[in-house]
Amino acid sequence: MESTRKQQVNPIRLSMVIVFLSLLLASTASAQPQQGGNVLVGQAVNPQGMPIKNMQVKLWRGAEETEFQTHSHSDGWFVLDMSKVSLDKTVWTLKLERRHFSVKMVELSQETVSRLAGGEAFCIGQVKVERRKTAAFWITLVIFAFMMFLIAATPMHNALAALLGASLLLAMSAVGHMFNTDLIVFGFGEAVGSIDWNVIFLIMGMMIVIAVVEGTGVFRWLAFFAFKKSKGKLWLLMLILMAITAVSSAILDNVTTMLLMTPITIRIALAMDTDPLVLLMPEVMAANVGGLSTMVGTPTNILIASYSGISFSQFLINLTPGVLLALGGLVGYCLFIYRKTFKEQAGRVSEELHDRLEKGAVIAQPGHLKKSGWVGLGMLVLFLFGEHLHMPPAVIALMGATSLLVWIRPNVEEMIEAVDWTTLVFFLTLFMAVGALQEVGFIDLIASGAGALVGENLFLGMLVITFMAALISTVIPNIPFTATMLPVVAYLTAQIPDAPAESLYFCLAVGAAMGGNGSLIGASANLVTSGIAERSGHPISFARFFKVGFPALLITVTLAFAWLLFRYYVLE
Questions:
Q1: Which CATH code for domain 40-128?
Q2: Per-residue pLDDT tens for 44-77?
Q3: How far, in Å, CA of 406 to CA of 399, rounded?
């Protein structure tokens, strides 16, 4: 009986294995390149040499259109099967057309036709197709500018502004389709296709992990630990809180860190009878700088990593020295500008608030914290080495979140509710709006202008990208600006022959993240901090933030840029 039981096979497990092996074999087979002749291969590219996807390629015989056609893939390459074409000495032409592009006719030479007729495969190389400015170009530009104004002026929530912009673009395309094709921006499928789902699921997974960790009370404990270690010295408390937020922002992200730390910091400041903004402003600036060192530390880094394929370890190794240098400059700057406040601070501590902080500074769930630590360590290892396993960061984040939920078994509904769906809606609709800009050719226009300015000079490219991103991020929130600039940086990276693949992306990361310190609307962490401070009766005005933040921007960006220059211009 025992041996018979051991030899029995679980039918469910067997079927799962069979399905898995079938999918594996199918994916392997589909990954194999097509072999054989009678195919015409080419690549559709825009005026900047970047690939064009979904370009329709039709075969014409003389002045007549044939039934043979194909579409270009995401890398711009297309393959036209010529095996069923009766090739003769007539003039054969390829017609390339796509919305927002001029029609391109490519006549095939007699040699090409002869080789294809003889059963050979032939590659015609790159086919450059010019852009065409239609009415949709100007409509998209106006709608996007209106959306950016709403985000910057904050008459409504950022997510609502982005949702409104995306809805207007889709509505214009739907209505325009009934009147004139030149009014069409993109279809719904193309809009959804412009969303970077790796970013969406990475953020969602990290939000679930953070919700579990927050429930343990570790952040309240850290804040009270800083309060005790400062022993009433305001300058020391500021430095400890800056260190905690910088490190936490690198591990979590700067928005979440400030969401957790701001209420606690306000309580500590009131307990010490001082202005909470003296602690909050250095804290949020340290969060924006410290989060830069990892791939998940800032929303802009997540965008850059997903678009460029730069790994977690590359962010950590190449940006951390610059971040430490910038943090050193930021600390010195904050000690200088608040020196009078430190001298005037009497060190009086409210016993009632002190007791309240101490009572709340308890690790409520030490077992959950320990489990979260092990899962977090596993995620860190996978973030560092997952690229060798071809494991996207979004998969790692979802695996970590799921592991915690299964291991700890918290209230799943509460954990799902802890996900900031408003932020996810903002990213989803923002991707659509930026995708519309790319669809109509505005990104190509920016890339062409930047390319003409930079040429093939790596130093000039690094300088322009870094400081342009930093300065523009003071007036335009850095997340939509970064999303808009990514294709431009890709073009400049390809144009500059000596540019290391990641160098200009890191310049964009430095400028966007540290440039967020330049104004109140520059970074999401600033807005989160400002909102909580205002609700507690301590609003941060735009003028006050700019007065303190803009010099900090110049100091930190200059120091970080000096490191990048040394790393990629001197050492390479």
A1: 2.60.40.4130
A2: 998 878 889 999 999 999 889 999 999 999 889 9
A3: 10
